[in-house]
Design goal:
Blueprint lengths: L1 H30 L3 H18 L10 H33 L7 H15 L3 H12 L3 H27 L1 H9 L4 H39 L2 H11 L3 H29 L1
């Protein structure tokens, strides 16, 4: 029986790899992508980057302005994520199979979250540009809507996994709905929810760079400004500060996860 199980697993893996290979080959043919030419261009790209795309002594004079734009991006990302998490918690409680009031409200909550989750933040930014123009507010709402949709789905799964047993036990004792939420659902789900929020903050900081290109704000706009003006040394300094900021936030996030989980 065990030999048959592993044989079946190997066949499934080989079948998946075969299907993936066929899809990849089909995509190359349809898009007329030249694989050889693509790999041949890599040495030229590396040579250009080493010769042009690096910080210089002169570019360091722009560091204060770059850090100011980076701080704006970080604050917008954190604010959008935390406010989105508050709304996501409410919709997750309404949409979870464990805590929903009824099936109708549960379906509505899940449906709203699905719509917001499946629209990319870049698409949200383009949509919101018509209402708010190029501003930090546009980037904030784009990140907020994306965070809300993703975190609602994550919180729903967290509630269903972490608190189903304790909810049933409290219901058997006759506890009220709000008592169940405050005494069982939230305490048992908070550690995992915090982990999801930290992950979303990391993701939003990366996304905010792209959003800044579209909304004309934050570190993304700063990079775009210097890159298009051919100031590659300053643009590379912007990239370095973004990388350092992301690594710093990720290290803090990983530490917090180790403490709470």
């Amino acid at each position: 029986m065990q030999a048959d199980f592993f044989a079946k697993k190997r066949r499934n893996s080989l079948g998946f790899l075969l299907i993936l290979s066929v899809i990849t080959f089909g995509a190359i043919v349809i898009t007329e992508y030249n694989v050889v030419k693509g790999f041949e261009s890599l040495p030229r790209a590396v040579t250009w980057a080493l010769g042009n795309f690096y910080p210089t002594q002169e570019s360091l004079s722009r560091l204060p302005a770059i850090l100011k734009s980076l701080m704006e991006t970080l604050l917008v990302s954190i604010a959008a994520t935390t406010i989105g998490a508050i709304f996501a918690l409410f919709f997750a409680v309404m949409g979870s199979n464990t805590t929903r009031v009824n099936a109708f409200f549960g379906s509505i909550s899940r449906g709203i979250a699905t719509v917001f989750r499946n629209i990319d933040v870049a698409a949200w930014a383009m949509i919101l540009l018509f209402s708010f123009g190029q501003s930090s507010l546009t980037g904030y709402f784009a990140l907020f809507f994306g965070s809300f949709g993703f975190l609602t789905r994550a919180f729903v799964e967290t509630i269903d996994e972490a608190s189903s047993g304790s909810v049933e036990a409290l219901r058997a004792t006759g506890a009220s709905y709000f008592t169940i939420i405050s005494q069982s659902v939230i305490p048992s789900s908070v550690p995992q929810m915090i982990s999801w929020i930290l992950f979303m903050i990391e993701t939003n900081i990366r996304s905010a760079t792209l959003i800044g290109l579209l909304t004309g704000s934050g570190i993304g706009f700063t990079f775009n400004l210097y890159y298009k003006s051919l100031n590659y040394d300053i643009a590379s300094l912007v990239v370095v500060t973004i990388i350092i900021a992301i690594l710093f936030i990720e290290s803090i996030s990983n530490y917090v996860r180790r403490v709470i989980l």
